[in-house]
Amino acid sequence: MLLAVLIAISTAAGTATANTAAQATVPRADSLGTLQGRVVEMTAATPIGSASVVLRGTRRGTLSGDDGRFLLDGVPVGRTQIIVGRLGYRTDTIAVTIRAGDTTTITVTLQPSTAQLQAVKVAAAATERDQFRLSASPGVVNVRGETLKRVPVIGEPDVLRVVQLLPGVVATNDFTAGYNVRGGESDQNLVLLDGFPIYNPFHLGGLFGTFIDETVGEFELLPGGFPARYGSRLSSVLSVVPKTEERSGVHGAASVSVLATTLSLGGTVRGATSWNVAARRTYADRFVSLLSERQLPYYFTDMQAHVRHRLRNGGALSVTLYGGKDVLDASLASFGDSTQAGGGQLLFDWGNTLLGVAYTQPLGARWGGDSTRVMQRVSWTGFGTTLDLGSGSLRFANRLGDARAWGELSRWRGAHETLVGYEWSGLRTRYDVVAAATPDPILAIGQRPSAASLYVDHTVRSQRMVARVGVRGETVTGTGWSGLSPRLSLKWFANPNLALTIAGGGTTQWTPALRNEQAPVRIFDFWLTADRNTPVARAWQGSLGGEQWFGGTRFVRLEGWAKRYNRLPSSNLFNDPDVRGDEFIVTTGQSYGADLLIRQLESERVSGWIAYSYSVNWRDGADGRFAPVQDRRHNLNVVTSYRPGGAWSYGARIGLGTGTPFTDVVGQLVRRRYDPITNSFNTGNLEVPREPIGGVRNGARFPLFQRLDLSVTRTKPGRRTWAPYVSIVNAYNARNVFTYFFDYSDNPPTRTAISQFPFIPTAGVSVSW
Q: Which CATH number belongs to the domain containing residue 426 in this structure?
């Protein structure tokens, strides 16, 4: 009985003590108030969604809605401070006075801040570290859109020109934005815009790329060892990801360079739908016509749009559109002293179109996994080119259409990731050569094949190893061909900062480009598809390398690689238009080499990379063994950006490479006609035609290549951020040989060198808001 009384007394005392403590810690209702308000942008007064509103010195806070409004109740009365911030804006601290039992209303204006964007760059650098820790793919290089602006430019920033400066990549000369990866041909690179293929991403005969730099969020180059999800090309994958605008309202950028004018706009609607559009046009034709009677009847245009909507169930739906066109349309006489002279009409146009829709949806924990996701993409890609000489006297035309469906199912379970997918392409190509003098086409080729692929990839991650194994099965109608392409990548961690990688596998390609690889400039490309006459090309490649990190923003990577080509179609320079199937000759070949990358990721002051590549390439054809034009044995590029603080930033690029091979001219032959009346050979009243006689195919090499490019930019942030820049290409005017001109009419014969880019200063300005 006594024990029961003591327990009751103790319980009552504890209850009283708890009540007293609660009264001491919980504020009385008459000492609290409510704070509400709206967060808007300073420049346009547009609402800012997802802005954080936090009571200073506490963990209490909230987020603004899509309309910029927020509500925070239970705020202690008296004078207090709140901290309001959002990515892309300057964080602001506001002093407010809260009245007991009342609601205080305020409006907070935030100013866009480039300093906030700097934090994004630091976070993005960690993505490179994640790539090192989580991915088994070797040799991958990520470059963000902001990096494009730090590399000295020819006119304006260009994705493909930056790709040329990466390890394992060779540009055969200054006049092409095309690139060859680890010994492969330039048509063996798969180029994707937001996951959708583009066949010929070049302007001005290959001088510039088609990607508008203001729309590029980042791009990724896989030079080899890529997973089974990628097919239809032999050498590399270049994936360009559009920029996503996360800020509400309408924001944009405009730039003017010596090459073109660009305008891009973007924004976010209600926090769920992001969009951006951009357009670009050259104005060289307009500018020349203002200063001279001479004409430059050439221009190109680009238009791009991207919309992404986040669904309430966690999925996302996006649409990507692109259209680009080059036009050269003029009288042949317009290139003379007067545009009034008569003459035949010259028309040369080419361009790409793209419409792609993508849908992703997480499915939760299904089929025994921790999480699953489904992805589906459908697209239509078109490429067309026309060369009309003399108002229909001779007309070349090529059209390609690619309707594609691509779907994947991904499952994650513990350390395992499994990906199963398919890809189907319906290809339509036309290749026509017609002349007004003949009623029938000189050449007419139409193809309508389909290509289907099934693939599976499985990745296992542990503390010391990341392994990925996959296989891709493919078939192409009309070829009688089907095949399997196994893929394997393995990364072993000696310690958290050092990893060794080994990778290998097979790749295939059934869409070759009919082009003269010997030509120094890619004037004209025809795309065909494999059939009974044109083989499906195969390549087997492997790599072995290591990667060492020093901290979170600096690493060194060294990789050795080798490739073997089977049934590789090469353009037949002596094909007979009357014979179907001799457009290509079948070759084999090998390439091997090593790539070194030393990289400092984006930082406050210094960033850039040193890329060195050594490679040996050869092909075996009907006329024996020869080196392809991309066989540059040694290639060095040093790219750096320096920002000492303040508004100024500086960029530099040093390029050094051994000469590429070419076919030397060992003589010239005068073509004469036999005159039966005089029983003699003569040339008539025409100029003496001289036909060059070539030596051993690619048996000679151009001299050493060297070039220094410099740039300086002044960025002035504010309500509108202005960034004028000046670039100097070939700063010390190195005389790099582009090609040679031979004249055997002189005694002794002469050889004159035609140079690549001379000293070229360019300037431009961009403004963003």
A: 2.40.170.20
Taking the whole predicted model, whether its pTM rises above 0.90 is answered as no
Q: Which of 382, 374, 428 is nearest to 406 (CA)?
A: 374
The domain in which residue 422 lies consists of: 119-663+762-768
The two tokens of residue 582 are 């001799």
Residue with tokens 């690689």: 561
- Do residues 685 and 646 both lie within one domain? no
Average pLDDT, the chain: 83
Q: How far apart are CA 494 and CA 132, in angstroms?
A: 13
Cα-flanking dihedrals φ and ψ of residue 536, to 5°?
-80, 120
The beta strand positions in 194-248, using DSSP E, are: 196-197, 202-203, 208-209, 216-222, 236-242
Q: Do residues 145 and 104 both lie within one domain?
A: no
The predicted pLDDT at position 102 comes to: 78
Q: Look at residue 755 and tell me if it is in a domain.
A: no
Write the pLDDT tens digit of every residue in 657-712.
999 999 888 888 776 666 677 777 665 565 666 778 888 888 999 999 999 999 99
CB atoms within 10 A of CB 669: 11
Residue 751: predicted pLDDT: 87
Number of domains, the chain: 3
The pLDDT of residue 660 is 93
Would you say residue 475 lies in a domain? yes
For the ranges 86-90, 162-166, 606-610, 668-672, the lowest mean pLDDT is seen at 668-672
Is there a domain that residue 478 lies in?
Answer: yes
Task: Report d(CA 41, CA 248) in Å as an integer.
Answer: 9
Percent of the chain exceeding pLDDT 90 equals: 39
What DSSP string describes 446-485? Answer: EE--EEEEEEEEEEEE-SSEEEEEEEEEEEETTTTEEEEE
| Torsion sign across C-alpha atoms 217, 222, 228, 232 | positive
- Please provide the distance, in angstroms rounded to a whole number, between the alpha carbons at the two ends of the chain: 82
Q: Are residues 56 and 145 in the same domain?
A: no
**Which alpha helices (DSSP H) does 679-769 contain, by range?**
none
Same domain flag for 104 and 242? no
What is the rounded CA–CA span in Å between residue 510 and residue 20?
82
Residue with tokens 């603004």: 64
| Whether residue 540 is found in the same domain as residue 632 | yes
Is pLDDT at 122 greater than 70 in this prediction? Answer: no
